[in-house]
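Researcher: Re-running this chain for the archive, since the previous output was lost when a drive failed. Same request as before.
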Amino acid sequence: MYYLGALMAIRFFGLFIVMPLLALYAMKLKGANEFNVGIALGAYALSQIFLQIPFGKLADKYNKKIIIAVGLFLLFLGSIVCAFADNIYMLIFGRLLQGAGAIGSVITAMISDLVEEEVRGKAMAIMGGTIALSFALAMGLGPVIGASYGVEMLFFITAGLSVLAMILLFTKVPTPPRIKHIYHETTKTSDILKDSNLFNMIVINAMQKGLMTVAFVLIPIILTGEDFGWGKAELYKAYVPAMIFGLIAMGPAAVFGEKYNKPRAIFLLSILLFGSSFAIMAYASSDIYFVAGVVTFFIAFNMMEPLVQSMITKFAKVHQKGAALGIANSVAYFATF
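Model: Regenerated structure tokens:
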């Protein structure tokens, strides 16, 4: 389970590390303008939207390790294309290839195969924590490495990390058991969407990810605007405590929701905190109050994150786990995009 979490963290670190400088880099390429630079940044999420479900269904039918390896190879290939891109359209193609390795739902489904149900929430919390740490490291190291060695080096690092992830996959990650079931062999999207429990979790997951995007748009704009006048270099003062408190809240929420079987209470508390966080930020009279709203938001997000993924795997039938997670992630990427 820990190695699967490491795979997810390595993959996200490689994708996140280019984000702080990607727009500046893309604007200098041939044929670049504001619109197609935006497409280059969003291309990763766009290909994820369309390929999460196919990857999930393939994972239900075939060996999950092979499917994950294919996704990691696409990440490697896309990173190499981006590193050698000399025009904006080649960069867009590379970014689409990076996102085409849509294995997030496959890794999550594989964790659910290898981990007992009573500790699955804890496993999802650990995975979420490693992703959050990889995001923090990428945001810190990306600008430093990119400024010293060029953004191309960041893409080469991503390619190297994808190779490392493939090595870990085949040397450290156990092969999940092949579970025989009596359900019909093919998984229909309509079957998943007709299940009210799964549908509710898919909607909650999408709204949660959409709110995260809203937050990441609003927070830097407001803090660096006329009201508070922060510099870009000061934004860490909001994000670091938010990530710390968010990670602290994730563990107890997962334990309370899973061990004591109170997921509904955690969801309701998270929703209340989401609403409170935006209200605090909207009416904040000082930057201290605004940062308190940011911290409240991250607490709400991290409390909900592991439970959403865990509940989807619980509500889905054995042969539907990969497809259900694929649908959930596709809808979430749409909300993000």
